Structure formats: C-alpha cells, structure tokens
Amino acid sequence: MFIKRLRYELRVACGLTSLLPLPALAGFALLEWLMWHDSSPDSISAYVTRDFTLLLPLIVGLSVAHLMSVEKEEGFDELRHSYAEPLYQQALWRTLIALLLTGAAFGLGWAAYSLVIRAPVPLQWILPSLPPTLYLMGLSLLINHLSGSYWAAAGVILGYWFLELQSQTRGKLTGDLFLFNAVWDNGRDGRWNTILLCLIGCLFLVINILLEERRMLRSYGGSRPGYE
C-alpha cells in the first residue's frame, strides 16, 4: 500500500519542474574538473565543500518549490481534498517527496564529484551542505503552501540565496542563520549555526504539515465531508 501510494504521489508531483534542477550539481562538477588537474588534495576538499554548500540548498529549494501547489496549479485541488484521508497526510507525502528529491540531488552530486576526483568523496566534505539545504527546503515548501504559487516560492528562495551570497551581506543580516557558514566563517559559532538551521528547517516542515489541516478545516467550516 505504501509503495502504491508513493508511486501515485511521485507521478502527481514530480514533473520537469522538480527534476530539471537535480543534475545541476553534477553538471557543475564537470566544469570544476577542467580546473582541478594541478590542485592539491586540501584545496580540492575545500572546493567540494564550497560547491555542495553553495549549490545544493538552491537546487533543492527550487526543486521542491511547487510540491504544495500541484493540485491548485493543475485545477484538481477540490477533488484531491475530497479524499477520505487525514487532512495532514498530503503534506506528509509531499515532505517525503522533498526528502527524496534532496537525496537524489545529493547522491548525483556525490557520484559526479567522486568521478572527478577518481575516489569516493568523503562524507565529511559534503555533510555541511545539509543544514542549509534542510532550511531552504522547509522554507520553500512553506512559502509555496502559503502562496499557492511556484513562482513565489522560487523567487523567495532565489532572492534569499543571492542575498546570502553577496560579499556585502554575508551573515550580516541573518547572523546565526547564515547559510554558508561552513564556507565563509563570519565569526559565529559553527555548531550553533548548524543546530539552528536544522531546528528552524524542521519547524518550517512542521508548520507546513499543520497548516494543511488548519486551512482545510476552515474551508469546510470545521468539518470535512467524506472523512470520519
């Protein structure tokens, strides 16, 4: 039953909008390969950490930016909301798909960079990319859910990412929530930065799930027909 439902959700939610960004990190690895022939192992590890930390959050944020508004954009949201299922279940499935897309982007990047350096990339090089990725993934799902628009979520993610990337604003506006602390140390506690990004990213996911139940109950005046 779980596999059948997962297949259904993947067919509904995973179109080109979700899949096109996923190979971006792998493609960037090919560009880096042209410049790494004479690089030392230490510099290569720094480059790989930099590429994952900077690019993976953006790739995942854009890839999941439409998951919560698929039904609305395709015009069958009222039909979907008539299904006899717990109100939060749809958001749970979309969160699972977001995590699968994150794993796919991470895995493709790991495989590509392993080919480039001709050895398996050590996980300690690329794990620092996961806290900012979780943060932007949760934010993207929540903005998409609140706005019902892919473009709104994608625009917020792209603008946020670009603002953090600028040399004039790196961590000055976001402080302990600086996305790229693993690459550009802004004097903040790195461990606290990691914990805070993970906690708030998870909070975004929880709010996104609870929001589905609250909004649907309000739409049906406190109870929903077809579900006991």
Structure in words:
The protein has 228 residues and is mainly α. The chain has one domain (2-219). Helices cover 68% and strands 0% of the residues. Helix 9 packs antiparallel against helix 10 (150-165). The radius of gyration is 19 Å and the shape is globular.
Q: How much β-strand is present in the residues?
A: under 5%
- The rounded distance between the terminal residues' Cα atoms is 20 Å
Kindly state the percentage of residues in helix: 55-70%
Low-confidence stretches: 224-228
**Can you tell me the overall shape?**
globular
The count of strands amounts to 0
Number of domains: 1
Number of helices: 11
Note the main sheet.
Answer: none
Oligomer: single chain
Strands, helices and their partners?
Elements: H1 2-13, H2 16-19, H3 24-33, H4 41-63, H5 70-74, H6 77-80, H7 89-117, H8 123-126, H9 130-147, H10 150-165, H11 190-219
Helix pairs in contact: 3-4, 3-7, 4-7, 4-9, 4-10, 7-11, 9-10, 9-11
Supply the key terms:
single chain; 228 residues; mainly alpha; 11 helices; 68% helix; disordered C terminus
Brief characterization of the structure:
The chain is an all-alpha fold. The chain has helices spanning 2-13, 16-19, 24-33, 41-63, 70-74, 77-80, 89-117, 123-126, 130-147, 150-165, 190-219.
